[in-house]
Amino acid sequence: MTQLYLDDLVAHSGLSPNLALLQLLVTNRERSASLGKALLQEAETPTEFDRRLSLIETILANRFPDLTKEMIVQILDLKKMDITQSRFYQEIIAEGRQEGRQEGRQEGRQEGRQEGRQEGRQEGRQEEALALILRQLKRRLGELSNYQMERIRQLSVAQLEELGEALLDFSGTADLEAFLKQLG
User: Fold this and answer.
1) 106 half-sphere exposure, CB direction, 13 A CA radius
2) Residues 6+ apart with CB under 8 A from 22
3) How many CB atoms lie within 10 A of CB 109?
4) Do residues 164 and 136 make contact, with C-beta atoms less than 8 angstroms apart?
5) What is the 3-state secondary structure (H, E, C) of the chain?
6) Per residue in 98-148, pLDDT tens?
7) Torsion sign across C-alpha atoms 90, 91, 96, 100
8) What is the DSSP secondary structure assignment for residue 102, as one 8-state letter?
9) In this predicted structure, what is the pLDDT of residue 12?
């Protein structure tokens, strides 16, 4: 079994591409730049180039967190290459999209809570209006039939308000029946 220390890689040249990639973990920024360029130039196929580029970008981004995407492009001299096709770039975009979705969900939840509050207020107004109208009708007309009670419970807030005004003129349950019939 052979032990390999990353610090020992700095002194070696002529390493296999995979071991040369490990050198990026222990070299300074300038050496990393020249090593990364050399590794990319030695790639024999587009697939190998993309694989190496992805690894180099990831190593550089983690090793030197202050590097931006543009800086990595400059360091590796990739002006001619479409960096947007690299895995590194795609991962950054995916993370951004994920964060955007999460923010959208949070905003949606907030909007949902606002809509829920509004619906709750509307239901509260409906219940208050219904309770008031039923008390007034019972006081004015006496006990109401189950049909009348159910029909009144189905009225909107606006219709309950109309009934509240109209019941002041009711002299009997026939007036209530006529009013409910008029509503449809």
Assistant:
1) 6
2) 6, 9
3) 11
4) yes
5) CCCCCHHHHCCCCCCCHHHHHHHCCCCCHHHHHHHHHHHHHCCCCHHHHHHHHHHHHHHHHHHCCCCCHHHHHHHCCCCCCCHHHCHHHHHHHHHHHHHHHHHHHHHHHHHHHHHHHHHHHHHHHHHHHHHHHHHHHHHHHCCCCHHHHHHHHCCCHHHHHHHHHHHHHCCCHHHHHHHHHHHC
6) 887 777 777 777 777 787 777 778 777 888 888 888 899 998 899 988 889
7) positive
8) H
9) 47
- Name the burial class of residue 22, with classes exposed (0-12), middle (13-18) and buried (19+) by CB atoms within 10 angstroms of its CB: middle
- CB-based burial, 60-77: b 16+ in 10 Å, e otherwise: bbeeeeebeeeebbebbe
Contact predicate 49/83, CB 8 Å: no
Enter the tokens of residue 183. Answer: 């509503």
Of 30 and 9, the structure prediction assigns the larger pLDDT to: 30
Report which of 3, 8, 41 is spatially closest to residue 26, judged by C-alpha positions.
8
What tens digit of pLDDT does each residue of 76-86 get? 877 655 555 56
Query: What is residue 84's DSSP assignment?
Result: G
